[in-house]
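Reading a protein record of the kind used here takes only a little practice. Think of the row as the fold of the chain written in a discrete alphabet. A record is reproduced here so that you can trace the correspondence yourselves:
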Amino acid sequence: MAASQAHFLLIASLVSSMGAGQCLMQDAALLSYIDQRFLSLEKRLEKCNRDVLEYVEEFREFSTRVLSRLARLSSGKAEVQREVEALLMRVEHAQRDIDYFRSTADSNACVEVHEDLLEQQLLEEEEGKKRLKLMLNASCDHGLAGIRSLKVVKKTGGKHGSWMKDPGKKHAKIYLLNGSVNNVILEFANIMAFMESNQTLKARRVPLPLPWEGTGHVIYQGFLFYHRHGSLNEIIKFNIQRRNVAGRMLLPGAGRIPAYQLSAQTKIDLAVDEQGLWALHAEPETGGNIVITKLDGTAMAVEHSWDTPCSSRDAEAAFMACNTLHVVHNSPSGGSSRIQCVYDVLGALSAYLNPGLQLPKRQGSHSTVHYNPKEKQLFAWGDGSQIIYKLHTEQKV
């Protein structure tokens, strides 16, 4: 009995040992599997880390290049914008010139013109010139023989500007247009109100819907005629009392170079004399010589043009008086202004004409010199001063 129990216990012990051994083997296999999985995951994580680092480095390099290019684009943005705006302005100017030439061109320009018709047109043009010559001769029997004196009326405003009376009106109003680009006219009741120390309080401010360019504007018969700022050659007619634009026109050939070399801000200089409204400008095709154009201020149209031998080189201003162009020259540094070229559009150059005539008792430069046919005086703007030159005229021979 005792021997049977001992044998049973031995068998049970052996079975238990075999079960424990199998469990150990299974645990070892599981640990080995887990270890292999962890090794695989670690390798994949390590590769992922390397890839992420490579991606980060690549992104950093790419960001650096992009930011560098954006910085260059930003720095050049203003310049590019200016170039684009300038190009758009040139296109606009060209389109306006094209529209003007299209409006004035004969719609049948490509049709062959008969010789008789061409001859008739030439005769009509010649008759038109004769009528223009008779009209211009009608009320101009005198010419400039000297400049007697000057009076500095006031010193106000900047280096560039113009001031004037309206020779087409009976009133004594004074108009001041300060600067080479502006859009406000100052109107004074008379010259005494203008001369007062606090002159802006006495002035009526007249704003313009479109700013002017240069200093070559004139006031005639209640209208301001001026070169519109930002345009190549557009002339605006502005009603001062009603404060509206009453007309506009393009002046062919003008606006590409300054009218006078020493007054680069003025591309078109408008003028008034006994015959009405004129425009003065220079063209590259004439070698920089001044071109005179007679304007119809009512219809805003060109009546006739003359190429002159008067050079814009070393010129600072000019004015028309009794059909005659007088060009004022100076030195680039400013000195004694003198009239060095005179051109009568009728070809009636006489002994009274005096090229080389000096504007008296003053050193400096002029922004504008405009003739007032009603008072036979020059209204000039010199280095911020408003000046009147009294003229001496003689009968034409």
Notes: The radius of gyration is 44 Å.
